[in-house]
């Protein structure tokens, strides 16, 4: 393991002080931004909510990095969006922008030369142009249909490197994305559709996504001889079978039921051995709910039932393989 050189007490105190100063300035920027939200913000949300296409987010340099994040946030929360690099736009990527879209352009100064072709393209094809800038008197503000001007809070000293301004831009993008989510009634369940690999996505996996169905289902009739029942249990590898009565799930036979009925087992029928009214779950239930039932009941499988009829079976290992815990 590499040894990390320990700072002197004087340097440690100085570093912490510098860090706090930066954060305090950025907090001031965010508070000023919150206080400054007005009809221009509302107009931007209204504009984006009404377009048929996507939000094209663009910016250069640090603003471009923020633009990428805003586009990603919008796309993952129900607002189709993509980032277009202003330099690449001048070399063919303008074709990604359609008359059904709206453009959200980010620029600290509002004078970013690389945005000129995107601005001209928006004007030529009547594409809504929304600006997010720090300087009210700028080329981008004059060209925009809607301009959101950031509060004039200084960047963190000792230089004017983008710090406070980019923090405000990113927060404003989040504010727009969430306002659009609220308008559309976008829920956590909707969010999970775009995040199937994340923790939240796993939390919203449904039983129907994991269950076994069709020929995999271990099912027998009430009057089936136990010799055939044992063959069904063995061939389907779930350690149980469901017992049907007029197509409905009437009972279940598990390893425990077999052990309790060993005396004269092969002379019996499924109805003689089964446990009636077994625990089941509906297809639309969360897989986490199925796992909870299996853990509480100390069982390893659940039949999935819809309108009294078995449509699937889920094993505890299916839940664990999917990362549900």
Structural class: alpha/beta
Q: Work out the radius of gyration.
A: 30 Å
The neighbouring-strand order within the major sheet is 2-1-3-4-5
Q: For the terminal residues, how far apart are their CA atoms?
A: 33 Å
Number of strands: 12
Please tell me the overall pLDDT.
92
Order of SSEs? HHEHEHEHEHEHHHHEHEEHHEEHEEH
Largest sheet geometry = 5 strands, parallel
Strand content: 15-25%
Low-confidence stretches: none
Q: CATH-wise, what's the superfamily of the largest domain?
A: Glucose-6-phosphate isomerase like protein, domain 1
> According to CATH, what is the class of the largest domain?
Alpha Beta
The number of helical elements comes to: 15
Our count of domains comes out at 2
Summary, kept brief:
The chain is an alpha/beta fold. The chain is built from 15 helices and twelve strands.
List the SSEs and their pairings.
Blueprint: H1 9-36, H2 39-50, E1 55-59, H3 62-76, E2 81-83, H4 86-89, E3 102-107, H5 116-124, E4 129-133, H6 139-143, E5 146-149, H7 164-184, H8 188-193, H9 199-203, H10 207-210, E6 219-221, H11 226-236, E7 240-245, E8 248-254, H12 255-260, H13 270-273, E9 275-276, E10 280-281, H14 287-297, E11 301-306, E12 309-315, H15 316-321
Parallel strand pairs: 1-2, 1-3, 3-4, 4-5, 6-7, 10-11
Antiparallel strand pairs: 7-8, 8-9, 11-12
Helix pairs in contact: 1-7, 2-7, 3-7
